[in-house]
Structure formats: structure tokens, C-alpha cells
């Protein structure tokens, strides 16, 4: 099946470039949302260091509902505008939170989470599919390279599931 080799690259950008290639290959030829979300989450979670949660919250037309993920069991429903995920969904802007303890309204699903990045997933028609949420037990784990890398990975995911 899919062989997950440790990624050893000179830079984080190269690491993300390689991860994008792997994601494209992994999702190619499949449009099923749950199947692709599950494999995408597993790929990213096991390829990047210092993560404790990575997964999807999907918009059901009213609020965000937890979807395929890797990590400990999580909060099931999040209203738009609530927490980091709900803020990303409402503002439609990536939320890079260097210290979740300093983010008013952060929802602590796993007390280990210290920093977090959440990318909104918008369909070509402008509608909200959900958000991609990645947590780390390290403060300041994510930087601008992670923001660009995660957004590029989400673009690969959205391209694969469009239908
Ligand atoms: N911390 C998130 C909730 C989801 S969990 O991290 C898996 C938030 O504040 O939206």
C-alpha cells in the first residue's frame, strides 16, 4: 500500500513540497470525501513532527461536526465563530495560534494542545466544506512556512474531492 517514509529535507518548505506530492498521489482517482479525509489526515499526522491532533471538522449547514482525524477523541460540534475552528470557518481565514492559552475562546479538547493551525476549506462555488485543524503539544510549533504549507496541502485535498 502506501509507504510512509520519514521525510528528511533541508528545509520545512521542501518537506511540505514532498508532502503535497505524496498527498496528490494518495488521493488520486478517489472522490469520496470520508476516504480522502481519513487518508489525508493520517498522511499529515504521521509525516510531521510534534503533533498531537490532526483532522477535519465538516460543516453540516449549521455548525462544524468532527470528521476523520488522528489523535485523542475530540469535541463533536463547534458553532461558527466559536474557538479557533469556528473562527477559521466564520472568517474564512487561516488561524495560526502560537499559544492557545492566549486565544480567547479556545476550545481545549486535548489539554496537551499548546499551539494550533486551522485552515478553512472553501469549495470553488464559495460554500464552506469545513476546516482542517492541526494541534501541537509545543508552544509556537507553527510558523508562516506551516501556514503556507498547510494551505497548499488543503488545496490538494480540495482539488481531489471536488466533484
Ligand atoms: N481547539 C479547537 C477545537 C478542536 S480540537 O483542538 C481538536 C478550537 O478551539 O476550535
Unreliable residue stretches: none
Quantity of strands, as a count: 6
The major beta sheet can be summarized as: 6 strands, antiparallel
Question: How many helices does DSSP assign?
Answer: 4
Broad CATH class: Alpha Beta
Q: Specify the CATH homologous superfamily.
A: GAF domain
Class of secondary structure makeup: alpha+beta
As for the CATH topology, it is Beta-Lactamase
Order of helices and strands: HHEEEHEEEH
End-to-end gap: 25 Å
State the share of residues found in helices, binned by percent.
Answer: 25-40%
The percentage of residues in β strands lies in 15-25%
Bound molecules: methionine sulfoxide
Overall geometry? globular
What's the rounded overall pLDDT mean? 94
Radius of gyration: 15 Å
Give a written overview of the molecule.
This protein is of the alpha+beta class and 163 residues long. It has one domain (12-161): Beta-Lactamase, CATH 3.30.450. It is built from 4 helices and 6 strands, in the order ααβββαβββα. The protein has helices at 12-27, 33-47, 83-91, 144-161, and strands spanning 53-59, 64-71, 77-78, 95-97, 115-122, 128-136. Strands 3-2-1-6-5-4 form a 6-stranded antiparallel β-sheet, with helices on both faces. The protein is globular, with a radius of gyration of 15 Å. The model has no long low-confidence stretch (mean pLDDT 94). Methionine sulfoxide (SME) is lined by residues 53, 74-75, 78, 83-86, 106-107, 109, 113, 116, 133, 135.
Amino acid at each position: 500500500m502506501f509507504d510512509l517514509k520519514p521525510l528528511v529535507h533541508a528545509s520545512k518548505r521542501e518537506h511540505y513540497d514532498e508532502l503535497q506530492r505524496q498527498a496528490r498521489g494518495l488521493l488520486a482517482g478517489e472522490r469520496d470525501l470520508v476516504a480522502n479525509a481519513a487518508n489525508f489526515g493520517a498522511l499529515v499526522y504521521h509525516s510531521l513532527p510534534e503533533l498531537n491532533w490532526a483532522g477535519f471538522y465538516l460543516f453540516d449547514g449549521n455548525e462544524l461536526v468532527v470528521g476523520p482525524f488522528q489523535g485523542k477523541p475530540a469535541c463533536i460540534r463547534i458553532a461558527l465563530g466559536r474557538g479557533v475552528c469556528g473562527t477559521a470557518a466564520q472568517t474564512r481565514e487561516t488561524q495560526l495560534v502560537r499559544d492557545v492559552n492566549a486565544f480567547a475562546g479556545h476550545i481545549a479538547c486535548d489539554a496537551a494542545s499548546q499551539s494550533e493551525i486551522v485552515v478553512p476549506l472553501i469549495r470553488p462555488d464559495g460554500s464552506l466544506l469545513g476546516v482542517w485543524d492541526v494541534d501541537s503539544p509545543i508552544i509556537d510549533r507553527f510558523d508562516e512556512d506551516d501556514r503556507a504549507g498547510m494551505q497548499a496541502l488543503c488545496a490538494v485535498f480540495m482539488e481531489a474531492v471536488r466533484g
